Amino acid sequence: MANVLVTGGGRGFGLALVSLLAALPESTISKIIVTTRGNPSENLRKIMEVAGKRIIHIECEVVNAASVKRAAAEIEEKLGGQGLDMLINNIGKMGVNPQGIRTMDADELIQEFNVNVAAAHRVTAALIPLLQLGKLKKIIMVSSSAGSIAWADRYTFSPAYAYKITKAAMNMLAVQYAIEYEKDGFTILTISPGWLKTDMGSEKADLDVDTGAKAVWDLANKADVSYNGKFYNIHVPGWEHNPGVNQYNGLEIPW
């Protein structure tokens, strides 16, 4: 039985992931801890009503250090001496600048860095002690293949400059944690969930959000220490040789 925490679980990809976890037997997933900025969304409430006490909602504003600290203390209390087995850091903000990178305001870049990088650090740092008590010791950073420097030419069609820059930085954050906590038996990796049909991804995206959530969970579930410090693509059957921009083949993505 694993205790899993999902940040940003009120909508989009995070909500789909919570729904998937709630459908798994209690013998597989014991507690599902979900953080959102405020009260649970209507859709999250519906899942919580069916799942009962297995889902624990925690209010957490990830860009606020005091809020993260309070949330960590509440999570520790709710776990009642048990450890946290897996943290899925699903944190993301994306703005666009259709007129080119020069029009990207520096303050906008700083705001996205605060959400996509600094917030991921705040949450991870606050929850490391609980993860050290867990059996699995897994941290999944939800990244994006658009944050790959090696693949930058693939995504020139997207004017989401700050998003691409900050996801690249978050990848390095994950690597630094992976190096430091490898000796403690942690598995820390980044996963690109694919281009999903969410408010952020739009209806033009490749995959429905449930497909992305299942693929991320399958990868996170099977990942062992050999995955530590690496960046992975999801695997979606039939998409391995897609002629478009994205191929979902389950392989490592170059940094």
TrEMBL record:
Keywords: Signal. The keyword Signal applies. InterPro entries: NAD(P)-bd_dom_sf (IPR036291), SDR_enzymes (IPR052184), SDR_fam (IPR002347). One of its GO terms (molecular function) is oxidoreductase activity, acting on the CH-OH group of donors, NAD or NADP as acceptor. The keyword Hydrolase does not apply. Residues 1-30 form the signal peptide. It comes from the Eukaryota. It holds the Pfam family adh_short. This is Uncharacterized protein. It comes from Hypocrea virens (strain Gv29-8 / FGSC 10586) (Gliocladium virens).
